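Module 6 notes. Inverse folding takes a fixed backbone as the condition and produces residue identities as the prediction. Think of it as a translation problem where the source language is geometry and the target language is the twenty amino acids. Below is one complete input and output pair. Work through it position by position during the lab.
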């Protein structure tokens, strides 16, 4: 996770992954970073939100640790974006706009209004650690 910032300005591509190309989307970026740490996550952000333990259900930065996954929803109720908490109120993520992989300030109103849940995923002997139907993606997490 320490090397996440080496990917800044990597181009965004829907469905892209650094495992297979030079551009990535948000869930492909997170999956790639975790795989480098030998932690295997599902490919889609909605599935990634089912993994790990809840770190926070509100944008309470004091409860977050570097490496936590942060999940957001767009206009609907379903999760459609994931980023990685860096600490100090910052998140690295693959943004859909022309910025690609970038660092964003979580104090911005957009992130506070669209935040769903933060999850903590620890290395275990199996993939998809602590998956729980109770922690399914979207409105059920709220």
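Target side of the pair, the amino acids:
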């Amino acid at each position: 996770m320490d090397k996440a910032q080496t990917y800044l300005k990597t181009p965004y591509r829907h469905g892209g992954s650094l495992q297979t190309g030079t551009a990535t989307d948000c869930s492909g970026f997170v999956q790639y970073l975790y795989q480098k740490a030998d932690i295997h996550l599902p490919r889609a952000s909605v599935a990634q939100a089912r993994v790990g333990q809840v770190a926070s259900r509100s944008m309470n930065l004091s409860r977050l640790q570097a490496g936590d996954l942060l999940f957001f929803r767009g206009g609907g109720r379903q999760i459609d974006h994931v980023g990685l908490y860096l600490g100090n109120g910052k998140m690295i993520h693959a943004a859909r706009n022309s910025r690609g992989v970038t660092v964003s300030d979580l104090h911005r109103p957009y992130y506070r209004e669209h935040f769903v849940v933060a999850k903590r995923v620890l290395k275990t002997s199996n993939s998809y650690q602590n998956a729980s139907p109770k922690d399914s993606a979207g409105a059920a997490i709220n």
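Reference fact for the lab report: Residues 26-36 form the longest helix (11 residues).
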